[in-house]
Amino acid sequence: MLKLFRWLAGRPLWFLHGLGGFLGWLTYLGSPTYRRRFHENVSQAGIAQAAARPAIGGAGRLALETPFLWLRPKGEPIRPPVRWSGEELIPAAHAQGRGIVFLTPHLGSFEITAQAVGERYAQEFGPITVLYRPARKPWLREVMEGSRERPGIATAPASLAGVRLMIRALRRGEAVGLLPDQVPPDGMGTWAPFFGRPAYTMTLAARLIQQTGAVPLLIWGDRLPHGRGYAVRINPMPYALPEGTDAEAQAESARLINQAMEGLIRESPGQYLWGYNRYKMPRANAAFD
What we know:
Number of helices: 11
Largest sheet: 7 strands, mixed
Distance between the termini: 23 Å
């Protein structure tokens, strides 16, 4: 598998996205469970099936672009160059002397966002610290850890130690990034509506913002057609989170963050990972799923 992973890393992006689109449809057609979850989640969100259909191929593109992004030569600029939208929000937040909490759902290429922010802004504002769940397979864990040990990016495991790393980074005025629609371990979240259905939602994102005074920004990596690269799109958080750390404030914060994620997804439903089991029960003593 490692040899295949390295071989894929050397292919051009247009090839990986073309092959990935085919494999995405192959997986969809071959797995009744995946197909059912995909359509259930789309229907739950009130999205037209036709609008979400491109996400079938998008899931395969996500899988095959991963080697390309993880094993990209360290120190070399991203190719093709990333396009930006809303990038002025980043220096504006840092000008206030505050850190940034970047929030992105499972939309488009979430791997490219951290790499792009690190490449463009780390020299001036410090690295971006990203929350990640270590892979279970040893060979993949080694590749993942090596991929994220690159200039401009620091990593924090999905554990209490990782949370401490993120808090320290924010208090230094740096940025952190996480996916708030990941299902956290039992006891590290609250039930909040996501497209009208209760979903166990992390409270970490709101706690980081509330404890450090960081600026929340929405970010996602728009996968451009035909392997032409990516556009990193940044929006302000449209809702003010309540102050306080009591259960009521945490539940309201989770609801508002979920609502913000819904807004991004509705803008580009063809790039959301609709097959992700967002409504599953949390596991005890586990990292973020």
